[in-house]
Amino acid sequence: MQFTARQICEVINGKLEGNPEAIVSKLSKIEESDNSSLTFISNPKYETYAESVTAAVLIVNESLAVSSKQVQAVIRVADPYSCLSKLLDVYSQAGQGKQEVAEWCHVGKDTILGNNVSIADFVYIGKNAKIGNNVTLYPHVYVGDECEIGDDTILYSGVKVYPRCVIGKRTIIHSGAVIGADGFGFAPQADGTFQKIQHVGNVVVGNDVEIGANTCVDKATLGSTLIKDGVKLDNLIQIAHNVEVGENTVMAALAGVSGSTKIGKNNMVGGQAGITGHLVIADGTKIQAQAAVIKNIDTPNKGFSGTPAVDAREHYRQLAALKQLPDLIKKIAQLEKKING
What is the pTM of this model? Predict the structure, then answer.
């Protein structure tokens, strides 16, 4: 696929400098760009490339000086990173193949398929399911009985959606993710064994959600585990039964949330952070990497770090004090020696 600088500029509503007919045939990182590439600079760490980069089209902010003579066209925008995201959407849509239902897939009885769906070979869809318009299911996707998949949603190869789960519109779920497996619920018995607690609920995933590879979202014991609109989950995250994740919350890889915890809107959870069960986390909370949250967070828009997690500013003060500990121990030893003669 090829695009001109003029066409790209029209898509992102930028200001074009240079050759409007410059041809772009690929997208490249700034370090690997050549005379057929579209690339961009948004992070100040890469601004020095404006002096030397080779590119067909370079997207930059409204003020960055571009002195490289090897750039055919410059497009200036307020936010290069957001504009790149928009271009990547256009590029991905342009590259999509013909929509079809493959010969070697299985579609269960009374399942409804929307318009313009793409269902690959070896996809299994159970009975009484509803697949929306423009849905793409890659090979080896499993969609259980009575599931609902919203319009424009993409399930990549190997995604498993257990029966009765609901996936919203424009949602992306990456390979290996499991939606709706049983939660980790076992009742201890008098003889030391554990009796499995049956989970009869489901998972409801909202609109515009993205779930990373090999992430697991367990179904509720009763009711629904909720992943609300706009949530972004990285790879290898565990969301336990009956958890609620509020709108536009983001979580980095290896985070885990125990059962029945309610996480508010617009939260940020760092990698390897853990949140214990039956908690309530206020809106706008920022939980730093490897933090362990073991009690409710009631005040919105605060940061937490450490194990157990405390107010981030308090944690930094503790770390600063800890650095002074060896000197303090040495001074105490000297004082004891002086006192004891």
Answer: 0.87
